Amino acid sequence: MTTEGLFSLLPLFLLSGFAVILMLLIAIYRDHNLTFWFTLAGFTASFASLFFIQAVLPRQIVPILIIDNYALLYWGMIILASSAVAVLSYNYLKEHEEQKEEYYILLMTATLGACTMSSASHFISFFLGLEILSVSLYTMISYLRDRLESVEAGLKYLVLAAASSAFLLFGMALVYASTGTMEFARISESLSANGVNALTLSGFAMMVIAVGFKLALAPFHMWTPDVYQGAPAPVTAFVATVSKAGMFGLWLRFFVMINGYRYGSLLILFTVISIASMFTGNFLALMQNNVKRILAYSSIAHLGYLFVAFLAGGKLAIEATTFYLVAYIITSLGTFGIVTVLSGKMRDAEDIEDYRGLYWRRPLVATVFTAMLMSLAGIPLTAGFIGKFYLVSAAVNSWLWLPVIILVINSAISVYYYLRIIVVMYRRIDEVTPAVETTTGTLATVGPVMQPSISLGGGLVLAVLTLALIWVGVFPGNIIQFIKDMVSSLSSAAMPMHTAQKIMLFR
Amino acid sequence: MYMENNFLLTYLLLIPLLGSLLLLFINKEKESLIRWAGFGIALLAFILSLVIYLRFDPGQSGFQFVNKITWISKINVSYHVGIDGISILLILLTTFLTPITLFSSWKSIKKKVKEFTFFMLLLEVGMIGVFVSLDLFLFYVFWEAMLIPMYFIIGIWGGEQRIYASVKFFIYTMFGSLLMLVSIIWLGVYAASFTGTFTTNLLDLYKIGPGVPHQIQVFMFLSFFISFAIKVPLFPFHTWLPDAHVQAPTAGSVILAGVLLKMGTYGIIRFCLPLFPQSATEFAPVISVLAIIGIIYGALVAMVQKDMKKLVAYSSVSHLGFVVLGIFAMTTEAVQGSVIQMVNHGLSTGALFLLVGMIYDRTHTREISNYGGIAKIIPLFSFALMFASLSSMGLPGLNGFVGEFLILLGSFKSPVLNSWAYTIFAASGVIFAAVYLLWMYQRVVFGEVKHQNLFSLKDLEKREIAILIPIFIFILWIGIYPGTFLKLSEKSTNTVIQQVLVNPNTDVKVAKQ
């Protein structure tokens, strides 16, 4: 490896370095404030280094990592999202009794894992990144030890993630057995030379299970509502954004590199998964009374939308999915950010009744939440709309009528539950009942669960996210161009689907 | 005048937009200041639209006051606005009704005045935007963005069942518009296969739309049409309307009936017909049948309503059926009749909703059976209700007659429908309208005074008279001398018809009109 190769790893070095520094720091002097600022410094340094390493890209680091503009874009997204989570977590944790400092180490390593995944070019780095991320997440999800549901969620995630890792390993083993290599590029060569056999395909299918689990696609979504609900709100934000971005970045690269669009059976598999995710997410969200669960189901549906464009294949699919992911991350951080800043010491602001009349008490927070929900629903002038526009463009361009129609039906369904939250927020104050039966059966008083005031950091994050949401929604030109440039390293490798195949499949 | 950039329409959009933002900085305790400011801003927009009207040249057939600024160059979307003779009438209607409704809500909206005024002005931006957009992307943005303020107006200031009504309204419209979005994108992608670039520019798509392969054109046409039919609402997509109307506050109902429904019919004229002429002529008989079912069904259901507001709401279904029939008859008379009928319906139904709202503010009941014999107690109100009812049922000399007459005349000799039966059935709607409106009037205004507390009713006050008089002036004006308005839309109507009928793919062979 050359010096430049080492240099291009700087962002990852910084992340892991700061994780070690944090660990030592805590051993010497335990202080929440100090740890937090070091964490932010770590993220900032790592993010800043992205600009410096751009000059030496693209670079293949031994066979296991590929660092190109595409990876850089995903790193940027992941690190920014993690910083936002860090800021949101600071005030959230301050409320709680637990040891707070170790949380930041885990956040750092989880980010490292997600970054590793999005630049993986080999099964080893794929699996390593995934495990670094997952193991950190087990602990983060169950971080609030005195909350039963938090521990339960952590355990659930542990068991299911371990099972899905087993599938992943088995799938990798099958692919290795038939192609004799674990490098993405070599796998692609081998497939082109020898064609695909049942062994490889079943290997891919096994891997899809693990990918589907991490991305919370139906039918591998069972853990999502419980974990989203049980995890502390900022961790939920992390699970919804960073962990999915890392996995999706990897899977998109892998699929494009092996040119998976050649295999009709894989495409059918993803069509089924995408359609199932849209329906499952939206239908199950309709009946929920818990905001975190609603958002969990909504995220299942959104990943289903994302895979409609993924199916389209070609350059446009890479751009559209990446753009949609950016919009999705902004919005998810925003929605879970609001849940975070409103959450109190005893429990999170997750019951829909907690939001009753929010607008008349906290107009700004309610307005921001409304904007975020509108973006999820895909209303114009928000990032979510442009994202959906892009998705549909990619899908229509490839004649994917069936998924597009299902996307339309589902978007209309989804409006119902987004509106439900909005409706509650704008209920007049005179209708606000003092005490309400919560879904958990306990009698909770509305009000005390809410934070008396929004923390400066949380407010700042929400303000930045809202501005980004509107900015991307109104003037998406720059960001579209930016994404186009950044993913070009990958999209030049992408081949559009064979026309005859497209028509046969979906027309 | 066409190619030069003219910012007047942009100013027209900016006045209510900036005005609504300005309102946010006013202390919410100062309610009367907010009311005056909102009214003033809306009035300013009306004055500007009058300036635009005066500068408008009805002799031109193309779009005027065009303003085009690149918006998102990556997907070739631009901020592209302009008006023709059809849209200017609807813009005038919008800017005319907005200050009136704001003024009318001074007494009835007592809570959250600031938010209410804010949403009303935002709604005006959306409505004007829909009528001026010459880019499908921009159109879609306004079309959807306008949903939000209307949703809040029904959902916050509405009646008992407002949540149900507002959510239903939102989801119905949303489903339709998403279908349209897919078609818009497909059209853009299809255009790219000719010109090399994705485009949503309406003027470019006018050239491309008619050439879309037939099977796909049917799908495109239907997805646009369903989206508009939900908004109109055409039978059987009308079920959201009575709920929304009854639950909405008076101002919301007036805007909903007066302008929002017209966006559907406007969309059909502006997009469905010229973009997909072949499918439009093919589907014309089916759609006309639906329109006629709507006319008769709406009237019959209106007849049995016990609630005055619901009666007026169902009468909208009936009246809008006429408009749709006129559009799909595709003769100059019929389409012109439809355009003028859109304005008429806005005025007369708007007036009816205002009157129902005024008496509701006094008695807090809209049940017809609770009234009776109020002619002597509140004569001014009774007169105004008579006037509005007569206008709505199409009495010669008032505006409704002009529109309905032109539509019936035009559909009679329509080359596309090619049958008298449509006209005969549609004409029965006129009779039904007289029945339900006069019957309602009789039960409310004449007869014995049913309740003692009706005796203490106060007649219309100055503010309320000031609200109604401008509407009545226009009702009379259109009724007596419709030429002022018909002249505006004539050229543009002909252009649309030419786009449909003089098309190599259209099967209909028409003698030159």
Q: How would you characterize the overall build of this protein?
A:
- Residues 432-448 and 497-507 of chain A have low confidence and may be disordered.
- Chain A has 21 helices and four strands.
- Chain A is mostly helical.
- In chain A, a hairpin with a 5-residue loop joins strand 3 (435-437) and strand 4.
- Chain A is globular and about 70 Å long.
- Chain B has a domain at 281-513.
- In chain B, helix 3 (85-108) runs antiparallel to helix 11, helix 7 packs antiparallel against helix 9 and helix 11 (250-275) packs parallel to helix 19 (483-501).
- Chain B is globular and about 75 Å long.
- The two termini of chain B are 28 Å apart.
- The model of chain B is unreliable at 508-513 (pLDDT under 50).
- Classes of the chains: A mainly alpha (507), B mainly alpha (513).
- The A-B interface holds A 374, 377-381, 385, 388-389, 392-393, 396-397, 404-405, 408-409, 411-412, 415-416, 419-420, 423, 426, 428, 475-477, 480-481, 484 and B 71-75, 111, 140-141, 144-145, 147-148, 151-152, 155-156, 163, 166-167, 170-171, 174-175, 178-179, 181-182, 185-186, 188-189, 198.
Give a quick precis of the structure.
The complex is a heterodimer of chains A (507) and B (513). Chain A is mainly α and 507 residues long. Helix content of chain A is 75%, strand content 2%.
Labels describing this entry:
heterodimer; A: about 500 residues; mainly alpha; two-stranded antiparallel ribbon; 4 strands; about 75% helix; about 0% strand; disordered C terminus; B: about 525 residues; 19 helices; 2 strands; about 5% strand; globular
